[in-house]
Amino acid sequence: MTNERALRCFLSRSENHDATVDAVVTLLDQLGIEVSVSDDFDPRQVLVFSILSTLRSVDFVCAVFTDAPPSAHMAFELGLAVGIGKPVLALSRSARVPYGIGEAIQVLRLAADDITPVLSEVRRFVRDLTPDTQSLLTLASPDRTTVGTAAAGLSQARSAGSSRKRCRALVDVVAHLFAQPETEVIRRDSIMDDRPGLILQSDTLFTQLGGALIIACAYYRGHSGSVLAKASHTLQQLEKYVEKSSAGLGLLVLDHDAHSDLNLNLFETPYAMAFHVDDLIESAGAGKLNEELWRRRAQAMRLKEHHHRE
């Protein structure tokens, strides 16, 4: 029986990058495992909740201890992982694992940069795991009627005259799509820079994200290059807004008249992501919005890590 999705791994390592860390990432990729990497999170900051939500959404944690001194954020990440019951595999050049958690996790000893000798043990560890059914978020999927109503509302919204009216109609569409008994949907005439949007609050969102889900809605006119520039700028503003507020995640839901698809993935971050409204309705209707949010966030974390290393 095949798994519905690939295994997900959170890689915890010290600030220093070396050949061992690179080799472990390559090995996990070859095993078909989706890897998220901490970007030297500081547990004293609000990002604590982002680390927790990421750990909850993975199937296991892989910790790499090299010759570099173990960092404080590794202790925080591994302590959380053990505390919430995530399987932890540690690859260490030392006979002992720091932080006093050696008995709670599986430890494989590395003799040098070559991880080939422990390859079979890593395969065995992974083989016994099954994907966790918990996703990044547990946003309830709307029923077929709700999706149909949202799609019809979008068609009507696109006939609105001014850009302002069209943007506010877009807010109505998104609010209808996310309306659930357990979720409080708060409309705001100005989320940031006089841009209308929504604030989604629920116990689940606070537990998994550490705060509300902020949705900024935007309608852009102009050619593809102009729309891309405006949307990427809004994403940057949204990330700053999330970081300064008590929110856990920001989504930019946009519509535009450009005659080509726009790929904003390169501008997304783990805390600010963008959806064209058509894609949002399609993902929600197919019950794949949670999975798509995870995929986008994992991709953004890998991209951020790549830029950090450069």
Tally of helical runs? 10
Can you give the helix content as a percent range?
40-55%
SSE ordering: EHEHEHEEHHHEEHEHEEHH
Secondary-structure arrangement, i.e. CATH architecture of the largest domain: 3-Layer(aba) Sandwich
Shape: elongated
Please state the average pLDDT score.
79
Strand % is 15-25%
Number of domains: 2
According to CATH, what is the topology of the largest domain?
Restriction Endonuclease
Biggest sheet statistics: 5 strands, parallel
Which value, in Å, is the CA radius of gyration? 21 Å
Distance between the termini: 41 Å
Topology at a glance:
Layout: E1 8-13, H1 19-30, E2 34-37, H2 48-57, E3 60-65, H3 72-83, E4 88-92, E5 106-109, H4 119-127, H5 144-157, H6 163-178, E6 184-192, E7 195-201, H7 203-209, E8 213-220, H8 224-244, E9 249-256, E10 272-276, H9 277-285, H10 289-309
Parallel strand pairs: 1-2, 1-3, 3-4, 4-5, 8-9, 9-10
Antiparallel strand pairs: 6-7, 7-8
Helix pairs in contact: 5-6, 5-9
What report would you give on this structure?
This protein has 310 residues and is an alpha/beta fold. The protein has 10 helices and 10 strands. Strand 6 (184-192) and strand 7 (195-201) form a beta hairpin. The relative contact order is 0.12.
